[in-house]
Write a structure and sequence with these properties.
Elements: H1 2-44, H2 52-55, E1 58-61, E2 64-67, H3 69-77, E3 80-85, E4 91-95, H4 107-116, E5 122-129, E6 137-144, H5 146-154, H6 169-177, E7 180-185, E8 191-195, H7 206-215, E9 216-223, E10 230-236, H8 242-246, H9 249-289, H10 320-373, H11 381-412, E11 421-424, H12 425-438, E12 446-450, E13 457-460, H13 462-478, E14 485-493, E15 497-504, H14 511-516, H15 537-547, E16 551-557, E17 561-569
Helix pairs in contact: 1-9, 9-10, 10-11, 11-15, 12-13, 13-15
Bound molecules: adenosine-5'-triphosphate and magnesium ion (MG).
Length: about 575
């Protein structure tokens, strides 16, 4: 649980940080754009500026104050004029004023300009400008109503009777230069003549007139008393740029809000899409850690990762490689768990079998020893020798068993170094067979040896290879009745492999014995004499053959005989 929480928290923190960086970036971009836009607005209408705009455009030099050149140029380009007053109304500086100014403004000079309007066609804006260590200065910015100027030049030529604007070429040019328009209206609001770009309606309602007011920066009109016709002229508002409208404060707030909401939704989606499968896989790994070698399942014990058809669900496809690896890991761990269990069982089997096989001869040894020790009987020399011989035989069997057991473990742990030599295999096998033939206890068996037609020199460890062949011939001798024919032959397969075949026509084996033949400590059911074998012979034989990079194959039929084939590289 702890892990899941940490994971989720990490995920959210990272995504939120990313979004934050994104938002801050957006804000910076917006600030830059906002700045350039207000700069643009000021360029077309100085009245839009803040008081702070002027502080570094007005120079204070001891007692002289004057406007900087760029401010004067800007005012001039807008047909405006500037008047700078101190807080007592004394004029400190002026620029481009259309009239002769007094040195000192009275209150009425001031109010007339601001509210009373000295002349109808003038408009003033006023700022208080703060400077360090002094009373604020007052700055007046005055402009002519440009529509009024245009109207003035157009009115003299209007033909009121013909209801025609009758504009001169000069007036038209002037109108075009200012992007202005002019219209002649009847008292009912019908458009009689028009010039320039203005609303398309041919008959104005009161409401439409109101719209004209808001659409135009400057408007001027004049009504001819004789005819009742009205001429209207206007200069449209400078259209603010698209950015300007988008980035009004309210819009910005809305924009930030939607961005945040979108980012929050995005974060959840992101966490779900990438996080949820990871959580499932983490659960899986935890399962593995707890020894539960299975992928996590839903309540119905169905797979979370694959659909009913066994295909990986879309959500998990991104992690296909990871899932494959986890599946493999799970399978491997399962196999190991199974192997571990069988290994434990086999080991228990071995130990119980081994202790049984050691106990049987030991109990007979101790039995004979007790008999010899007993003072109740006097044993004859012949009897004593007989007992000693049995004890000797039993202890020899135990020694042999222990020796073979250590050998199998050494073989298994690859702790048995081979000392290979070049040997003529025909000669080598022939000697082993002769050894068996010469054994007086084997007189009732018939041995045949068939050598390979050519001499074959092979690279083997003579001691251990002899053990292999000895074991196999010994089995054929031991598990078959007298009269059995045992045939040993040597041959080659394509120059690089040699084969030693040991065949007998004896009792053969049941299928079930064949299957377990090479298991350690396994003895066939056809062996009733417990003292004559350890059940390790073939296990050791197989391991020794494998150490020579060879293989062993057994074919057998009950009552028909057995054939053992040993194939080893030359
Ligand atoms: P050890 O060889 O250690 O003395 P062992 O002979 O019983 O003991 P293996 O050589 O591994 O053990 O043989 C396993 C079993 O296979 C034997 O107990 C016997 O039942 C069966 N067996 C092996 N060879 C033959 C054979 N040629 N004919 C019939 N049965 C055989
Ligand atoms: Mg054997």
């Amino acid at each position: 649980m702890n892990l899941y929480k940490r994971f989720m928290v990490q995920f959210f923190i990272q995504l939120f940080l990313l979004s934050l960086i994104f938002l801050v970036g957006m804000l910076i971009v917006w600030a830059v754009i906002g700045f350039t836009i207000s700069e643009d607005e000021i360029q077309t209408d100085l009245a839009e500026a803040d008081a702070s705009y002027f502080t570094n455009r007005i120079i204070l030099d001891d007692n002289n104050h004057f406007f900087k050149k760029n401010l004067e140029e800007l005012a001039e380009s807008q047909n405006g004029w500037l008047i700078l007053l101190d807080s007592d109304g004394a004029i400190l500086d002026s620029f481009n004023a259309p009239e002769v100014l007094p040195t000192q403004f009275t209150v009425s000079d001031f109010t007339d300009r601001l509210w009373g309007s000295l002349e109808d066609n003038q408009q003033f804006t006023y700022w208080e400008i703060e400077f360090l260590d002094m009373a604020p200065l007052l700055l007046l910015y005055g402009r002519n109503n440009m529509a009024e100027d245009l109207l003035e030049s157009a009115v003299p030529v209007i033909d009121w009777q013909q209801e025609n604007l009758n504009l001169t070429l000069g007036t038209k040019e002037e109108l075009e230069k200012e992007k202005a328009w002019i219209q002649l209206l009847s008292p009912e609001g019908k458009v009689l003549d028009t010039y320039g770009e203005v609303s398309e309606s041919s008959l104005y309602t009161m409401q439409q007139l109101g719209e004209l007011q808001s659409e135009n920066q400057w408007l001027a009109s004049l009504t001819n008393t004789e005819t009742g016709l009205t001429v209207v002229t206007g200069l449209k508002n400078v259209p603010s740029t698209a950015w300007g409208t988008t980035f009004s404060n309210q819009n910005l707030f809305l924009f930030a809000l939607t961005t945040l909401i979108l980012l929050a939704i995005g974060t959840f989606w992101y966490a779900r899409k990438f996080g949820a499968p990871l959580l499932v896989m983490m659960q899986w790994i935890q399962n593995l850690g707890n020894g539960q070698y299975e992928e996590p399942t839903n309540e119905n014990k169905g797979s979370l990762i694959t659909n009913k058809k066994g295909k990986i669900k879309k959500k998990y496809r991104l992690y296909k490689d990871l899932i494959d690896t986890l599946e493999q890991l799970t399978a491997t761990l399962k196999i190991h768990q199974h192997q571990q269990k069988t290994l434990e069982r086999t080991r228990e089997d071995w130990i119980s079998g081994l202790s049984h096989d050691l106990k049987t001869p030991l109990s007979s040894i101790s039995g004979y020893a007790q008999m010899l020790e007993s003072s109740d009987y006097e044993w004859s020399a012949k009897e004593t020798r007989e007992f000693a011989s049995i004890m000797n035989e039993k202890s020899f069997y135990m020694m042999e068993l222990l020796e073979e057991l250590t050998l199998t473990f050494r073989l298994k742990n690859q702790a048995l170094p081979l000392a290979k030599e070049q040997i003529d295999i025909n000669e080598f096998i022939r000697r082993i067979v002769i050894h068996f033939i010469n054994d007086p206890s084997n007189t009732e068996l018939k041995f045949t040896f068939v050598a390979a037609p050519q001499s074959i020199r092979v690279n083997i460890d003579p001691m251990w290879f002899q053990r292999i062949i000895d074991n196999l011939i010994a089995n054929a001798v031991k598990y078959n009745p007298s009269g059995t024919e045992i045939k040993i032959s040597v041959s080659t397969i394509e120059q690089h492999l040699f084969v030693v075949l040991i065949e007998d026509d004896g009792k053969g084996m049941e299928m079930e014995i064949m299957e377990k033949l090479f298991d350690r400590y396994y003895r066939g059911t056809n062996t009733h004499d417990t003292s004559t074998g350890t059940g390790l012979g073939l296990a050791i034989t197989k391991q020794l053959i494998q150490l020579h990079d060879g293989s062993i194959h057994v074919e057998s039929m009950p009552e028909k005989g057995t054939a053992v084939r040993v194939i080893v590289p030359v």
